[in-house]
Amino acid sequence: MEQYIIKGGNPLVGDVEIGGAKNAALGILAAAIMTDETILVENLPDVQDVNVLLEAISVIGAKVERVSRSAVLINGSMIGSVSVDYEFIKKIRASYYLLGALLGKYKKAEVPLPGGCNIGSRPIDLHLKGFKALGAKVSIQHGAIVAQAERLVGKHIFLDTVSVGATINIMMAATMAEGYTIIENSAREPHVVDVANFLNSMGANIKGAGTDVIRIRGVEKLHKTEYSIIPDQIEAGTFMFAAAATKGDVMVRNVIPKHLEATTAKLIEIGCEVEEFDDAVRVVASKQLRNTNVKTLPYPGYPTDMQPQIGVTLALATGTSIVTESIFENRFKYVDELARMGATVKVEGNTAVIYGVDKLTGAQVSAPDLRAGAALVIAGLAAEGITIVDDIVYIQRGYECFEDKLRGLGAEIEKVSSEKEIQKFKLRVG
Fold first, then answer.
1. Is residue 117 flagged as an active site residue?
2. 230 annotated ligand binder
3. Which residues bind phosphoenolpyruvate (predicted)?
4. Does 123 belong to an annotated binding site?
């Protein structure tokens, strides 16, 4: 089993390049099979979630050709099956995007109920409600969602709660429905906009993505395109908080600063200097960090995927901070691990009260999910001594070359898979 071993205490200093957005890539790759012509997708992150979805797409018959580490050609003309294997779904939740894509193109789809990170219940009833509104019959059979329709017809759909997954899935299905669809209370996240822009580049007619009302005029078919995915705002934010927690100075390159506004605002609030450029953000943490309060909200609010990273950083700030998680109920699993490193945090329901400490100390901890795993790596980088992070398979699902990028900023971190490698690292770093 692979682990990260970290010797903390080095401020992170230097430049880091951010890859393509994982969450945008998953929607875009699913949408790429909606035409029989060849699609080129660039700025693709080389992470496990993306690679699993590409494998799922190829297994149902699409031609997938990786032309480089960050580019792929996809041709969906040879798809012979609208049934996706459970093996893929249990690895990544976002395989459910194949429901909207297959239903839109073939008017039928069969996808097992999803898996992914264990961060709480993420029901897909809104997705199914949307498909039914468009005219599909939807049922659960043998652990799979089966959706089919003779024809899909545009409808006025109101989402009871803001859901990124449901917005993207319904948008894909409605792209090839007859007539006009309106999705109200739609998610406004940058990756929703990116999937809409991608579909439009294939000939779809989608307006309003990035607002809470999306209007879609259905088209009969989609065509080939070449498309570059937006930078990953969560990867960028993770490095920004790593700079803050380690009292570093990091230039985060290949970003869209507008997408990082909620993260940037909190970093400034706790005492960091943040400088914005056209496609880069510099974070300098030269002063003692201060406490703050934060509540996760749908975009443009503070992202739930950045909650563990700020939690770890606030553990090292002066005073008492309150973090409220309003999106997922199991997002505080990292707190018990952080306590092993000397943090003082009290969780009550969906709120964590964080009492800042002077320092964290290295310990053996376990990553409970993707973002919490990255946050524990940040804790290890800021801590005194050696930290070992177990279950890093979660981290590899969403961060490309994580340890390499951190080493490029001066971090002492290595991926190890044996006691011998751990001892070797300890000898090397003294």
1. yes
2. no
3. 22-23
4. yes
Confirm if 247 and 210 have CB atoms less than 8 A apart.
no
What confidence tier does 124 reach under pLDDT thresholds 50, 70, 90? confident
Alpha helices in 48-138 (DSSP H): 48-59, 86-89, 97-106, 125-133
Give me the helices (H) in 17-82, please: 22-31, 48-59
Per-residue pLDDT of 294-335, as tens digits, reads 999 999 999 999 999 999 999 999 999 999 999 988 899 999
Question: In order of start, what are the domains of the chain with their CATH numbers?
Answer: 1-17+230-427 (3.65.10.10), 20-226 (3.65.10.10)
* Residue 124 known to bind ligand: yes
CB 140 within 8 A of CB 118: no
Q: Which of 355, 358, 346 is nearest to 382 (CA)?
A: 358
Q: Above 90 in pLDDT, residue 424? A: yes
Distance CA 406, CA 410 (A): 7
Catalytic residue among 117, 146, 243, 383: 117
Contact assessment for residue 172 and residue 104, using Cβ atoms and an 8 Å cutoff: yes
Q: CB–CB of 291/318 below 8 Å?
A: yes
Question: 70: which 2 tokens?
Answer: 């960050």
At which residue do the structure tokens 């032309």 appear? 67
SS3 content of the chain, % helix, strand, coil (to 5): 35, 25, 35
Q: Give the amino acid at 329.
A: E
Is position 305 annotated in a ligand binding site? yes
Predicted confidence (pLDDT) per residue in 218-244, tens digit = 999 999 999 999 999 999 999 999 999
pLDDT of residue 115: 61
**Residue 380 gets which letter from DSSP?**
H
Q: Strand 280-284: give its sheet, edge to edge.
A: 13-17, 249-253, 280-284, 273-276
Task: Spell out the residues 6+ positions from residue 395 whose beta carbon is closer than 8 angstroms to its own.
Answer: 4, 367, 370, 373, 374, 377, 389, 402
pTM for the structure as a whole: 0.96
Taking alpha carbons only, the member of 34, 40, 114, 39 closest to residue 79 is: 34
Torsion of CA 147, 151, 155, 157, to 10 degrees: 10
